[in-house]
Write a structure and sequence with these properties.
globular; 192 residues; single chain
């Protein structure tokens, strides 16, 4: 029989009130609170971010303040930069490819509550992974919704809400975000 954590990570309905998940929430909340009192230049920053996000590459930076549900569901590639006030609700995995830049106040939401209000009264939800490709740039205030994949070399304009997949080499903007231009992947040159 699967644990609630295993159900959560596999996109099944799970109980977020389960003790193992509550322990994970508490661990992440404690580490995020600790980070709120430091900068990336502080002596304890690297150890704290590595405790929060196991396996984070030494070349990747997450600027505090930062908030997440677990930390263990975040997978960052080399040279990822996450600016201030980012929120990653990582019930489902959030994978961000190498050399990607995430602007300030971006939000990544993997949990999905039931649509039916009676079911929503229970402490149950599902979670769908988010994948961001390599060499992307998400402007400030971008929101990425559950289950979305953003391809490689994409630019997502500030303030956009991404509810559907974005293909490689795209510039997307809006609420909801739509592809405005196709990029050819060569030093930011835009195909008209």
């Amino acid at each position: 029989m699967k644990t609630e954590m295993e159900k959560m990570r596999s996109g099944e309905l799970y109980c977020f009130a389960a003790p193992e998940l509550q322990e994970s929430f508490e661990r992440a909340a404690t580490l995020c609170a600790r980070m709120r009192t430091m900068t990336v230049y502080d002596e304890n920053y690297r150890k704290t971010i590595e405790d929060l996000i196991p396996g984070i590459p030494s070349t990747s930076v997450v600027n505090p303040p930062f908030q997440c549900d677990h930390g263990t569901g975040i997978v960052l590639g080399e040279n990822v930069f996450v600016n201030y006030n980012c929120v990653m609700l990582d019930a489902g995995y959030i994978r961000i490819g190498r050399n990607t830049k995430v602007g300030p106040c971006c939000q990544f939401y993997t949990p999905q509550h039931p649509i039916d209000y009676m079911e929503r009264r229970e402490p149950k939800e599902t979670a769908y992974p988010i994948t961001i490709g390599e060499d992307c740039w998400l402007g400030g205030g971008v929101v990425v919704c559950p289950g979305v994949t953003i391809g490689n070399r994409c630019v997502i304009a500030a303030g956009s809400v991404v509810v559907k997949d974005i293909p490689d080499d795209s510039l997307a903007a809006g609420c909801p975000a739509v592809v405005k231009k196709r990029l050819n992947g060569k030093a930011g040159v835009v195909e008209q």
